[in-house]
Amino acid sequence: MAISVFSVLSHLLEEYATGTPNKVKVIDAYLLYMLLTGAFQFLYCLLVGTFPFNSFLSGFLSCVGSFTLAGVLCTVSKEGEWTVFEGKSITVPCHYKSEDTLNVKYWCQGSVYDFCSSLARTDNPGTAPSSQARVTIADDPTQHVFTVTMRELKEKDSGWYWCGVEKGGIWSKDSATSLYISVIQGISVVNNEISAEEGDSVTVQCQYSEKHRKDEKRWCRSGDVRSCSVTNSGTFISKSLLISDDRKDTVTVTMRQLEMRDSGWHLCGAGEHQVSVYVLVTPKSTTAAFGVKIQPSLTEASVKAQDSKSYLLQCLLIACGALILLTAIIGTRRIMRGYKLINF
């Protein structure tokens, strides 16, 4: 059970009012330690945690309000902000210390840790990986990590979540850390820059959120609305373009028989959302019978130019060497002449 800093302070103040002088000194030192540790934890959460601005207050309450005698709260590592399309699944790994191997692990939702709602626990068969639950949890003791999988996410699932490890006991605070999950609508591509040779084909996979499953999908040349190829049925076929929509979460666009003029920015769209893709078409390489690329041969003029540069470089090196040698000889002669004058 978590004991907040406010209840601890209340208890210490009561002891302060009724305690002996020696006990008061101990309480003073302990109270100072608690306050300094709480301040350190708050600063740590601000610097290391990634709280969105609109959730700053909840982050503050989570860091300060849940501070206990156990010290720093964030001992399970998996903080940050995750973004996922609606209708997709997400798997979050939560790492813990070896000393917590046998302890119960859990996953809960809520802005403030002390009041978060439990969604999955390792001691609950109903949320085991083999179950059909929308949220499941699996522990890997050998790697000291447990993973949480949430399926068929909705926009309403956006919010703060906590990886937690039970410690047990009234004076032992559970180890936990938070992360923010944003469930959004839209469309994206894994790689927005692709290239291929002239005459070849190139394929782009655009992934979209659940909202766009029934929307039309399109592929356009950026800046030219008239160039758009659209499909409502799931498939569009032409001599140079193939669009295939699985009507689930992915539309595949294949540009065939590429020409140099196909280079440039293109748009993959679904509904009101779209994403940019840059296609680079390079000249076709000349190949021999065995598939070895033939590099353009050097012309006679280029060979002569290279020989001329090499000869000039050699001349400069020889001249520099001669100049250094001459300087050394003159310097030596002057030194010897001065030495002879001194002897006379």
Question: Tags for this entry?
Answer:
18 strands, flat, 2 domains, Immunoglobulin-like, 4 helices, five-stranded mixed beta sheet, five-stranded antiparallel beta sheet, alpha+beta, 28% helix, disordered N terminus, endoplasmic reticulum, 344 residues
Topology:
Blueprint (H helix, E strand, L loop, with lengths): L4 H14 L2 H28 L7 H10 L14 E6 L4 E6 L9 E5 L7 E5 L13 E6 L4 E6 L8 E7 L9 E10 L2 E3 L3 E5 L4 E7 L8 E5 L2 E8 L3 E3 L3 E5 L4 E6 L8 E7 L2 E10 L17 H44 L1
Parallel strand pairs: 1-8, 10-18
Antiparallel strand pairs: 2-6, 3-4, 3-7, 5-6, 7-8, 9-11, 11-16, 12-13, 12-17, 14-15, 15-16, 17-18
Structure write-up:
The protein is of the alpha+beta class. It folds into two domains: 5-184, Sandwich (Immunoglobulin-like), CATH 2.60.40; 187-282, Immunoglobulin-like (Sandwich). 28% of the residues lie in helices and 32% in strands. The chain has four helices and 18 strands. The chain has helices spanning 5-18, 21-48, 56-65, 300-343, and strands spanning 80-85, 90-95, 105-109, 117-121, 135-140, 145-150, 159-165, 175-184, 187-189, 193-197, 202-208, 217-221, 224-231, 235-237, 241-245, 250-255, 264-270, 273-282. The strands form four sheets. Strands 1-8-7-3-4 form a five-stranded mixed beta sheet, with no helix packed on it. Strands 9-11-16-15-14 form a five-stranded antiparallel beta sheet, with no helix packed on it. Helix 1 runs antiparallel to helix 2 and helix 2 (21-48) packs antiparallel against helix 3. The protein is flat. The N and C termini lie far apart (103 Å). It comes from Hemibagrus guttatus. It is found in: Endoplasmic reticulum membrane. Pathway: Protein modification; protein glycosylation.
